[in-house]
Amino acid sequence: MKYHEKQIELDNPLSFWKHFENEERFLFYNPLKKEFILGAKRLKTFSIDENLKDYLYIFSSMTFFDSIKDEKWAGFGNENIAFEYYLVEKDGKQTLYYFNDFVEIENQAVEICEHSYKYGMDDYKAWRQMFSAAKDAISSKEVNKVVISREVKVQCNTLINVESVLLKILKHNINSFVFGYYKDEKTFVGATPEILVQKEKNMVISYALAGTILRSDENDELQKKVLLKDIKNRHEHQIVINSIVNVMKKFTDELIVDETKILTLKNLHHLQTAIHGKDKNSTLLQWVKRLHPTPALGGYPVDKALELIKRYEKHERGLYAAPIGIIDRNGDGIFLAGIRSALIEKNIAYACVGCGIVDKSNCEVEYIETKDKLKTIIESL
């Protein structure tokens, strides 16, 4: 490996983020390993088949659809990037990795901001039209499920303090993967519970995540039981399991589907099922291409659902619900679905939120669910 390393001590890993203020950079927090990985200053980009062994980590992002029309997403996604500098924080230890020149990174305080903001909830008519189109396609047996989404434009009175947003996201979403990606004066941020795929040596794991219920102050344990037994949510969840299994069984040995469990987040409970198998022949990026988008993000059958999304959604998804991940020099790593997220530009946060529509879905209930999912971004402001 060509990187030098040095142990450092920062009060907050966001000091690294602030040090490289005008450089392209990313932040990635893995709650399973309690590990921060940050990178700064683009060094090299990689094709899907290139050898990564000389580079510590590759940061990778893809757009939901192959092509982008909306100018605000221009230049974002569909790249695999190595950076000159990395900060890795794990087990109470911080290591700075640098490719050529060492830089001294000083502690910098992160100011906590309470942004004053406004956003509209005047899109219910458009939501109802999308919902009706999805239900019609389900009734005619064209699809079993479609994931529709809304874009909410949150306008602040001042420039958005991205470090404050990241700090709050990290504080409020301890069970979620947290990411930030800054490029060209815009930042894509979020806290996602959804793992698309992870690879460790020969083991490949994907997760079905579909089925949602709001947490309760009065009786949260009852909410979990209600979700586990709910026919509509279990049906929606099973569609995702079946689709992932159908893809994975083509390329893996000893495929195992775990028992469905509850994943608890700050505001919501979700149904989650791990699916794992062994594969010696494929790269992590190949697995990402095979699995994206799962029916948790697009629908099923995938092609038909994506046609409906393209036809009826008025906004560009960009990196929303798309793969975002880290690959190490051994080719192992993890990719997430970029949900509970927003693209921040100056004083505006463009937040996308969506939910899966199946035959027993209710238009108003699903719309309310998107408002609950929006809280991840709103609370961070």
UniProtKB/TrEMBL annotation:
It comes from the Bacteria. It is an enzyme of class 5 (isomerase). InterPro entries: Chorismate_C, IsoChor_synthase. Keywords: Isomerase. Residues 125-373 form the Chorismate-utilising enzyme C-terminal domain. GO terms for molecular function: isochorismate synthase activity. It holds the Pfam family Chorismate_bind. The keyword Isomerase applies. Its EC number is 5.4.4.2. This is Isochorismate synthase. It comes from Clostridium frigoris.
